[in-house]
């Protein structure tokens, strides 16, 4: 035994599990009166937020919720969603499962059953789809309704009827604000469950651990340049990779959460002007929403706002327009399996002297790893050796480190495959530049990223095949100025039957969430290999051509 090990064992005094719960507890002790949450006309201090999280944990524990149990939530970016990120794991080690609010009933039912949901908290905005999902699901969770008193009178649709046996406000009030909660026994304990589309219709459940969530929160502070008391606007859905872990990030610097139910230009500009928003995240659609807003919806604000965006790199014209509007855009890259973005296009000041074209080329790269990610590489998936860092040789982008998921829930085969060779295989294809910056070139999984959300092309194709007139189909991404990408369906009909684009789209809407339905339908013979396999790369080029020609 080394002298540096003899008598120097771990003990409670020198080793405690990392958890983001500690960040909120610290903020509440040091800044109890600082505003933690703004929701419409409501304001909650850090002391109140911490008490509400403990109340939720206490109420859940009183219902028998504990280690290994799943608490599912169908919530917008509202205070209960923030409560859930702390209160659920504090309930004797339960795990938070945030449902995508854009999903259809069948997809929701699958997740509830797969996650074995014990408790379900539902915003009444989603009562109808959740009622349908519960009717389909095998599990019978305790259902709690959230009736938002700040729900606007001019909402696009009224709140649905309650579908649960308890009201969230009453449930919260039943909890003990002095409940000590349960911290993780081990930082490897699960904290949350997120579902990713993958390459099949049924998604995989990605499990996060406390250590990764804590490290991601700290890394977000660094890479998003969050100083003391930042003001964070919730344009990014908290159901998406746990909001890139920003629910756990904001308390690190005792910041303020500004809730936002819907991404609307006027509301965003009002928040920036009225609350001094300093940071927000989102897909390119959010940038389009801001830049294309009518003049009467825009407001001036004195501060520079940092805008973190993922998906495709924003065009130079968009970056300049955002800069002119008062935003500083940071381009990120990651996956659900990596707690959201863990690669950042970190700008090298030496590039300031380059020509506009050379600067644009560097801004198109995905970037370099976050500080706490051990490594990101571009490897040959067969040999598991790095490809030459020449900016030309294509390999698979892979990750490893403390901000990679535990694995896929109840799917050891998929977990083992994803971690083959000691790396997480992203399925994305890219190149490594000589300076260590990664740049994506294609997606091997044929996933369509629309508005920041993954859409499985196979799932859409399966729905198309349910139409009696469809003989053969293939779905690929078509570029969209608003959404980044949307599905485009190429179809061969049976015996040359005549069918309209509108009829196909209407058919898809009966079985899929609207955002998964094709935005374009093209009827033509599909290109195939000699073995009959559809050549999707040809169709992607065809879809891009349609956009260029304006067809």
From TrEMBL:
Keyword Lipid metabolism carried by entry: yes
Coiled coil: none
Annotated CDD domains: ttLC_FACS_AEE21_like (cd12118)
Keywords, comma-separated and alphabetical: Fatty acid metabolism, Ligase, Lipid metabolism
GO biological process, one term: fatty acid metabolic process
Record field: catalytic activity: 3-(methylsulfanyl)propanoate + ATP + CoA = 3-(methylsulfanyl)propanoyl-CoA + AMP + diphosphate
The protein's enzyme class: ligase
Limits of the AMP-binding enzyme C-terminal domain: 459-533
GO molecular-function terms, A-Z: ligase activity
Source organism, top-level taxon: Bacteria
Classification via InterPro entries: AMP-bd_C, AMP-bd_C_sf, AMP-binding_CS, AMP-dep_synth/lig_dom, ANL_N_sf
UniProt-listed Enzyme Commission number(s): 6.2.1.44
Name used for this protein in its record: 3-methylmercaptopropionyl-CoA ligase
Naturally occurring in which organism (per UniProt): Paracoccus onubensis
């Amino acid at each position: 035994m080394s002298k540096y090990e003899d008598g120097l064992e771990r003990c409670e005094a020198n080793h405690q599990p990392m958890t983001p719960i500690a960040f909120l507890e610290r903020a509440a002790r040091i800044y109890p009166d600082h505003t933690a949450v703004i929701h419409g006309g409501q304001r909650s201090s850090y002391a109140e937020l911490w008490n509400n999280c403990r109340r939720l944990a206490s109420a859940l524990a009183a219902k028998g919720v504990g280690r290994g149990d799943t608490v599912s939530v169908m919530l917008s970016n509202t205070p209960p969603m923030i409560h859930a990120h702390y209160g659920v794991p504090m309930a004797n080690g339960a795990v938070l499962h945030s449902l995508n609010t854009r999903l259809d009933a069948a997809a929701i039912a699958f997740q509830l059953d797969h996650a074995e949901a014990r408790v379900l908290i539902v915003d009444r905005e989603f009562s109808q789809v959740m009622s349908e999902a519960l009717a389909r699901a095998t599990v019978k969770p305790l259902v709690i309704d959230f009736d938002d008193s700040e729900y606007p009178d001019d909402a696009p649709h009224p709140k649905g009827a309650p579908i649960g046996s308890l009201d969230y406000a009453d449930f919260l009030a039943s909890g003990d604000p002095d409940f000590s909660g349960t911290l993780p026994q081990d930082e490897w304990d699960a904290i949350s469950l997120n579902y990713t589309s993958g390459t099949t219709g049924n998604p995989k459940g990605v499990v996060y651990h406390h250590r990764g969530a804590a490290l991601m929160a700290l890394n977000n502070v660094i890479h998003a340049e969050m100083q003391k008391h930042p003001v964070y606007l919730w344009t990014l859905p908290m159901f998406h990779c746990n909001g890139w872990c920003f629910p756990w990030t904001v308390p690190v610097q005792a910041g303020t959460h500004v809730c936002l139910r819907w991404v609307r230009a006027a509301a965003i500009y009002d928040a920036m002007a009225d609350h001094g928003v300093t940071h927000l995240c989102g897909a390119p659609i959010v940038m389009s929403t801001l830049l294309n807003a009518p003049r009467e919806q825009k407001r001036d604000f004195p501060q520079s706002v940092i805008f973190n965006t993922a998906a495709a790199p924003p065009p130079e014209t968009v970056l300049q327009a955002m800069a002119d509007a008062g935003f500083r855009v940071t381009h990120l890259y990651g996956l659900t399996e990596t707690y959201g973005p863990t690669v950042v296009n970190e700008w090298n000041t030496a590039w300031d002297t380059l020509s506009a074209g050379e600067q644009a080329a560097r801004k198109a790269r995905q970037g370099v790893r976050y500080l706490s990610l051990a490594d990101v590489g571009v490897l040959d998936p067969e040999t598991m050796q790095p490809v030459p860092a020449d900016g030309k040789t294509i390999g698979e982008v892979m990750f490893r480190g403390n901000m990679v998921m535990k694995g896929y829930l109840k799917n050891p085969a998929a977990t083992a495959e994803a971690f083959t060779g000691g790396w997480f295989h992203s399925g994305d294809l890219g190149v490594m530049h000589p300076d260590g910056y990664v740049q994506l070139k294609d997606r091997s999984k044929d996933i369509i990223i629309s508005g920041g959300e993954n859409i499985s092309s196979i799932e859409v194709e399966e729905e198309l095949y349910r139409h009696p007139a469809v003989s053969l189909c293939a779905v690929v991404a078509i570029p969209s100025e608003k959404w980044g990408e949307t599905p485009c369906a190429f179809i061969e009909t049976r015996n040359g039957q005549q069918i309209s684009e509108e009829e196909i789209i209407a058919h898809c809407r009966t079985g899929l969430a609207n955002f998964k339905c094709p935005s374009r339908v093209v009827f033509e013979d599909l290109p195939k290999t000699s073995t009959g396999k559809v050549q999707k790369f040809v169709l992607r080029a065809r879809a891009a051509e349609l956009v260029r020609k304006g067809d």
